[in-house]
Amino acid sequence: MSALQELLADNLVFNHIPFPIIIMNENGQTVWCSRHAERVFHIRSESVKGQQCPYMNPDIAALYKCSWEKIVNSKDPVRLEEVEVELGDGTLAYTTVVTKVFQSEKEKFILTIFEMDESQIADSPSRELEKLRSGLDASFMMLYFDEEFLITYANPLFLKLSKWTPKRILGKPIWQMFSDSEGDHQLIEEMMATLKAGEVWNGEAKKMRKDGELYWVDLTAIPIVLAGAETYYIFLEKDITEAKETQRHLEEIAFIDSVTGLENRHRLEQVVNEFIEEKKHFSFVFFDIDRFYTLRDVSNSDTEKELLIEFTKRLRMYFSDSLITRTGLHEFALVTPLSQWFIEGFLAYLQQHPIYIQGTAIPLTVSGAVTRYPEDQQTFVHLMKASHATIKKIKERGGSAISALTADDHERLNRKALIERRLVHALDKKNLELLYQPQVNLKTGDVERVEALVRWQDTEAGIVTPDELIPIAEENGMIHEIGKFVLETVCRQLKDWGSRGIPMNVSINSSIREFRDKDMARLFTEHLTINGCEANRLTIEITEKFALEAEAEHSIVRQMKQLHQKGVSFSLDDFGTGYASFRYMLLLPISSLKIDKDIIQSITQQEKIQKLVNGMIQFGKSLELQVVAEGVETEEQLELLKAMECDSIQGYITGHPMTVKELEAWLQRS
Q: Which PANTHER family does this one have (predicted)?
């Protein structure tokens, strides 16, 4: 390396090129700087040797939609536009950077040329904009989003206050910054619609730090529309959490909701805890107004207020001897001694006493949950959680009902809470494992591929199956970590099988939330390359719900097609249980479909189901798709599927999910 440095130091050509030049090794450490670079950046070549180059190190490279690995391994020059660099006087400039890899003494080096001249350093009109940007960067939390509302940049102030890291948020969708409540969804959709219309959006927004803590910002979102360039969006944020906390504290002191005159959530919690301490029996009733946002959209702010006031009057008339509180925009909670049948009668009471706004009857209904203390739950937090679980269940059935959780519901709720709590430890300790279930061709009897299934055996939760684990992981955001674990494990296993001459294909399951990460295709490709795996040995299984949502999101379709072009295939899983669309079957690169196991296991019970399965098989073949039947367990099911000319089967009749050792032993016996 010293010979190279001497060569560069004496090379007049490099020192007379009118652009700053910095040379790095393949780890991003500075090896040499030209005199022009020393002058522009106020550095000395000798003093920065061995240091990470602050303008083009591996972490910074990710900001410019180009991985460090691509820069290091590219045979051709790599050109990066609008790279932010800090000049010697502390101001920022934006320049084009060209990198070129060369070798000396069998080592790789990266020649980096910054296409900037003295006019960019001296005073010029562009410096005003640079100073403006620098001032905004220092004063506001700043985020950049691309046209699809994926994060492309986050400034240091945002990263510091939000506790996010570039790795966790770059390329992620706008939704990751917010909580998963209905109100937040509504706010984001309104914001995106405003920005797409070319207008500035300003208002208060509740956001979420990396650790799940909520904070408030005063947010100004600005669309940047440049001729001949992609539209992008800048978010400028001021942290107003302290002011909101002060406001909340004042509201807690007041205990009164200003619109309805009802006591609020803080008073509710206080009363419930008092009742629990006194061991009083009571019913905790939670109401959520159905389709509130639809009702609100057909009215203005004054009529919205009138709607809430009129609804409150009906609550007070019907539940006259109960504590009534307003706990959210359209949520109300009661503590009452009244019986279940009387509480359920509130729906009929609402129909008999409709709300009229400006002479028009408003079709208002509620979803209600009844949870008893101490029979059902024993703390305020658990009463709230049980209520939300009941409301969710009712709304999925269309709303307009009042119900209580059954004993089975409570057991599931408690187990879900246990799994969520233990899953964090499982991911930290990496004690998840993969099992593999074979998929057998009915004509040849050969194993075409194996499906990788996540299994987790916990000391407290016991065995947690994929059917139980994946929905919980999708809901709490841990699906990304599980997906990464599965991909890394499968790629390592394919590499191991390949080195031992075992020609195996593997399918893995993927979530729509994983593919909303715009780096998903790159992540797949990198793991295949690192492990020397052939892309055509990997199949990604997606559900009908995934396919239906992907159809409307261009970035997901694009990533699927990128992977398909590299050789990765896609399979439509659980076919027949969701909403099948001819459109997404034509739009998405799907090469096979798997008929759901519940349908297959009913195939011997009804002739109609046999006709249905036969129709599915013929439908798949008409689109030149391979058809797989899941959950095959009996000889009778197998014979029917053979007669229908189904391509392949997967189920206990051919093989259970197995560890790697069990699978290899099974293959030798087969």
A: BIOFILM ARCHITECTURE MAINTENANCE PROTEIN MBAA, DIGUANYLATE CYCLASE DGCP
Tokens of 114: 């910054």
Biggest alpha carbon–alpha carbon distance for the chain: 94
DSSP strand pairing (232-239 vs 323-326):
unpaired
Residue with the bigger pLDDT between 237 and 515: it is 237
Residue 484 CA: distances (Å) to CA of 106, 288, 453 = 34, 37, 13
By DSSP bridging, strand 92-104 and strand 78-86 are antiparallel
Residue 17 clears pLDDT 80, i.e. is over it: no
Which residues are CB-contacts of 487 (< 8 A; sequence separation ≥ 6)? 508, 523, 524, 527
**Could you tell me which residues are beta bridge partners of residue 103?**
108
Q: What value does the mean pLDDT take over residues 565-577?
A: 89
Closest by Cα among 565, 564, 525, 522 to 542: 564
Closest CA to 321 of 285, 364, 359: 285
Average pLDDT, the chain: 83
Please state at what angle helix 479-499 crosses helix 466-476, rounded to 10 degrees.
130
Q: Distance of CA 326 to CAs 267, 299, 338, 402, Å?
A: 10, 21, 19, 18
User: Angle formed by the axes of helices 380-396 and 407-429, to 10°?
Assistant: 110
* C-beta of residue 371 within 8 angstroms of C-beta of residue 390: yes
- Give the Cα separation of 532 and 391 in Å (integer): 49
Q: How large is the average pLDDT for residues 455-484?
A: 80
| Closest C-alpha among 134, 123, 48 to residue 85 | 134
Residue 547's contacts (CB-CB under 8 Å, 6 or more residues apart) are: 572, 581, 584, 585, 588, 590
DSSP state of 49: T
Asked if 12 and 21 count as a contact pair (C-beta separation under 8 A), the reply is: no
Span 631-658, pLDDT tens digits: 999 999 999 999 999 999 999 999 999 9
**Whole-number Å distance between alpha carbons of 386 and 377:** 8
Total length of the chain: 670
Nearest to 590 by CA among 639, 542, 651: 542
Residue pair 158/177 in contact (Cβ under 8 Å)? The answer is no
Report how far apart, in Å, the C-alpha atoms of 198 and of each of 271, 470, 530 are: 48, 39, 43
Integer Cα distance of 332 and 261 in angstroms: 12
- Tell me, rounded to whole angstroms, the distance of Cα 150 from its chain centroid: 12
Give the pLDDT band of residue 125 (cuts 50, 70, 90): very low
